[in-house]
Structure formats: C-alpha cells, structure tokens
Amino acid sequence: MRTPSKMPAANGRISVAPSILSADLWRLGEEVSQMEKAGADWLHVDVMDGHFVPNLSFGPSIVSSLKEKTALPLDVHLMVEEPMLFIEPFAEAGSDLLTVHIESKDEVVYVLESIKKIGVKAGISIKPDTDAALLEPLTDLVDLILVMSVYPGFGGQSFLPESEYQIKRVREIITRSGRNIWLETDGGINPQTAPMAVRAGADALVAGSAIFKAADPVLALKQIRQAAPEI
Ligand code: DX5
Ligand code: ZN
User: 3-state SS of the chain?
Assistant: First the structure.
C-alpha cells in the first residue's frame, strides 16, 4: 500500500533538492543520510528511459530502497517518452512527487490527472526550448512546474543563461493562476547560478554535481541555500 505524499504545499521558502544522479552510488546510503542531516528539503531522482533522453538511469527499485531509508520527500523526475507506463510503479515505490515532461508522447492532461488520482503530487516540466505558454492551461492540475535549465539527460552541464527568462515567464503564469505551485529549476545550479534562478522566481532548486562532486557536499548544500535569497 502506498504511503501518502509527504510534501507540504509550496510556501515561499526555498527548497533544495540534491540530485542523486551525481552521487557516488557505491556510497548512496551514506550520501543521502548526509544530505538529510545537512537540511536538504527533498531528494531528486532522475528517471531516464534512453528514448526521451539519450541516457538511462534509475528504476522504481531505487525509489523503494530510498523510501525505506530516508524521510526526505522523493521528487521523481520522469524523463521518459511514455510516462503512463511508469506512473503506477513509481507511485507504488513511494514517490512523493512525479514530474512528467510536456514534450512526452502521452496526453499530458490525462497523465497529470492519473498522477493526482493515485494520490501523488504532480509536476510538469519543460525543456529549455519549449514555449512556457503551453503551461498556462495546466496550472489547475499541477503542484510543481520544473523549468529545465539545461537540456535533460546528463548531470554536470552549465546553466543556460536564457533560463532566466523562461523562469520569469513561468513565475508570471503561476502568479496569474493564483495557485500555490512550486517553481523548480534543474540543471547547472550552484552557488553562483542559484541567486539568478531565485531572483527570476524559482523556489525549488535541484543540484547534482555542485553538491555531490564537491569536496565537501554538506558545505556545497549550505552555500547553495545561502546564495539563494529567500523570496
Ligand atoms: C539532468 C537532470 C538533472 C541533473 C542535474 O537531465 O534532470 O536533475 O541531475 O545535474 P546538475 O546539477 O549537475 O546539472
Ligand atoms: Zn532532474
């Protein structure tokens, strides 16, 4: 039986979500406990199917292992061509939030309604070259909008400067909706780029390599949080 989503509603505070894509998988448990103790808000899990993006990553079994070992809410980012195939198994595994891509093949309204029906929070993501206006009719169905600040598929890329404009546009859409929706940014977030993303309107920051490839991941997490002025 699935446990209900632990994620609170968006509240204006900045949430930091370390992405385990860049973690040392040999020491995953250790790395995750360290992040939990250091005050990470969520754990970001990237799911790649080798079609939507040219890479493979994690399946539902990693989510169920994490669920058993950490109290951090699991923010699962589905970079897959056919999200309908994966919603149920990832929800059953213990995802707290399932984010799908607007560019995937399945009918997005149906996908988002299906996520909500299962009782998991729903997110929608756009790639850097997708028109943010497409999100406008979906705001009633989502708890989070994820703006990709790199082209999805790999960790360790640089924050695309045009993402600033994309984040601003999405913030306007969220404000117009009058709803409490998180605006998450994913890709190239580090202590230098985090302030820009937050000033543009992001209130959730995913960071993979800036945290897990740092000599001191706990310090890196703190630096990202400190660099991001509260909104
Ligand atoms: C990229 C993934 C990201 C990735 C971010 O496709 O969606 O979540 O882990 O990695 P960094 O922070 O290294 O850009
Ligand atoms: Zn991601």
Answer: CCCCCCCCCCCCCCEEEEEHHHCCHHHHHHHHHHHHHCCCCCEEEEEEECCCCCCECCCHHHHHHHHHHCCCCEEEEEECCCHHHCHHHHHHHCCCEEEEECCCCCCHHHHHHHHHHHCCEEEEEECCCCCHHHHHHHHHHCCEEEEECCCCCCCCCCCCCCHHHHHHHHHHHHHHHCCCCEEEEECCCCCCCHHHHHHHCCCEEEECHHHHCCCCHHHHHHHHHHHCCCC
